[in-house]
Design goal:
- The structure is a single chain.
- This protein is α/β, with parallel strands linked by helices.
- The protein has a single domain, classed as 3-Layer(aba) Sandwich (Rossmann fold).
- 25% of the residues lie in helices and 25% in strands.
- The chain has 8 helices and 12 strands.
- The strands form 3 sheets. It has a 7-stranded mixed β-sheet with strand order 2-1-3-4-12-11-10. Strands 5-6-9 form a 3-stranded mixed β-sheet. Strands 7-8 form a two-stranded antiparallel ribbon.
- Strand 1, helix 1 and strand 2 form a beta-alpha-beta unit.
- Helix 5 packs across helix 8.
- The longest helix has 12 residues.
- It is globular and about 45 Å long.
């Protein structure tokens, strides 16, 4: 059984590489009919406005919405999170089309511009309970969004504290657009709602394969059966892997 990765723009190759490491085939998806050949879909990070324009050009939105409505697992990372949200704020003039399905409000560039990208250790007790390994996971945030509000059926998997100086100057955080932050000192950065998984960060850029394994197991929970080999690189053996670290958000 194969996992589709939307391959219009962004980090789709990185997701396919991680899937290969854990023994699963990833298929690049660029046309609506290709969705018929996969049982789950990853929408990668990238430039959300550009991805939306390309998806509209290829008439992908109706097929993507149908894929979600059928209950098949869909995971959105960074820009993919924006795509899955029912509501997005902080967008460029004219906005962009969304797939929807995830009961949340997301801010498109909550943490700032490209030069304000950062890395942080996130507490992930649910991920650790399901996949083993440490109680934390490295989050790579690149021009990252954040979830400001989430509905009652949305399970929060990770959140991140907002520095006090940001809280006292909401305009500097939200691109001159006043928005309500659901928690007074945190924003949500990873959620699950039924067949939908969303992360504001990029697990595919780290050595931790647990997010991908967690997503694959959602297939069985959502009704698709398959034997996935997840015997790839042990995450605990890769914690010292060399990487280009981003600064910690302060």
């Amino acid at each position: 059984m194969a996992v589709g990765v939307l391959a219009l723009q962004g980090s789709f190759n990185e997701h396919i590489a991680v899937l290969r490491r854990i023994g699963v085939k990833g298929i690049e998806i660029r046309k609506p009919e290709q969705l018929q050949n996969v049982h789950a879909l990853i929408i990668p990070g990238g430039e959300s406005t550009t991805m939306a324009k390309l998806a509209e050009y290829h008439n992908l939105f109706p097929a993507l919405r149908e894929f979600v409505k059928m209950g098949k697992p869909v995971w959105g990372t960074c820009a993919g999170l924006i795509f899955l949200a029912n509501k997005a704020v902080g967008q460029k003039e004219g906005g962009q089309e969304l797939i929807g399905g995830l009961d949340c409000t997301v801010h498109r560039n909550f943490f700032g511009s490209q030069i304000q990208s950062f890395e942080a250790e996130l507490s992930v007790p649910e991920l650790a309970a399901k996949e083993g390994g440490p109680q934390s996971s490295r989050g790579v945030f690149i021009r990252a969004p954040a979830i400001l509000e989430a509905g009652p059926e949305v399970e929060v998997l990770a959140d991140y504290p907002i520095p006090s100086k940001k809280l006292t100057d909401s305009k500097s955080v939200t691109g001159n657009q006043e928005v309500k932050i659901g928690s007074k000192d945190k924003v949500i950065v990873a959620v699950r709602q039924g067949n939908l998984l969303a992360t504001a960060f990029h697990p595919e850029l780290t050595a931790d394969t647990r997010w991908h394994s967690y997503f694959l197991k959602m297939m069985a929970e959502c009704g698709d059966q398959g034997n996935f080999s997840t015997g790839g690189d042990d995450i605990n053996d890769n914690q010292q892997q060399l990487r280009n670290d981003l600064p910690i958000f302060q």
